[in-house]
Amino acid sequence: MDEQEQVTALDRALRGTSSRPTVMDAFAAARRRFATGERIDMQGLADELGVNRVTLYRWVGSREQLITEVLWAATRKTFDGYRTETAEGPRAAAALTAFVRDVNNHPGMRQLLRDEPAFALGLLTSTSGEYQQRYLGLIRELISEDRAAGLVSTEIPLEDLAYTAARITESYIHTRVLIDEQPDARRAEVVLRVLLR
């Protein structure tokens, strides 16, 4: 068997030499589009990757599922950064305030909320949605860490506190859509610091 016959698709993928696009290429392209405020359009994405829409949908499920994963990857990465930045004091209130500020300034979120407000609200705030469940879990982790350090009161059950904190952040992120008002992270900070003390 010569050397050419021994090179498998797995070998090429592991070495990054595969010329065919993969599901991770689709995910990376969608993340790039979101980061720059460009709409994540399935036909445009398929064209960019040189695959047909059927292949793209087989890879990622639906547009909603793809955008959920893009949003979650950005959220998780952002909160990992907040955890390292916030060394002293309650981290949950500081992280959630920074999240409200950063989401309101993010080109992709601004585009999504401006162009597809009902879709965005449903995707991000529905308690039956994948994003919302993960977001609540992340907030529970932050509050639990603060409680373990004796920085947050234990008067309110953890589930209720996490749910309330999530709804507060959403209220200050989606103010443009909900009440046609400019979002203001400083107002969210006041409420979150009182709630998470």
UniProtKB/TrEMBL annotation:
Which SUPFAM superfamilies does the UniProt record give? Homeodomain-like
* Domain QsdR TetR regulatory C-terminal as annotated: residue spans: 91-197
Pfam families, A to Z: TetR_C_36
- InterPro entries under this entry? Homeodomain-like_sf (IPR009057), TetR_C_36 (IPR041485)
User: What is the designated name of this protein?
Assistant: QsdR TetR regulatory C-terminal domain-containing protein
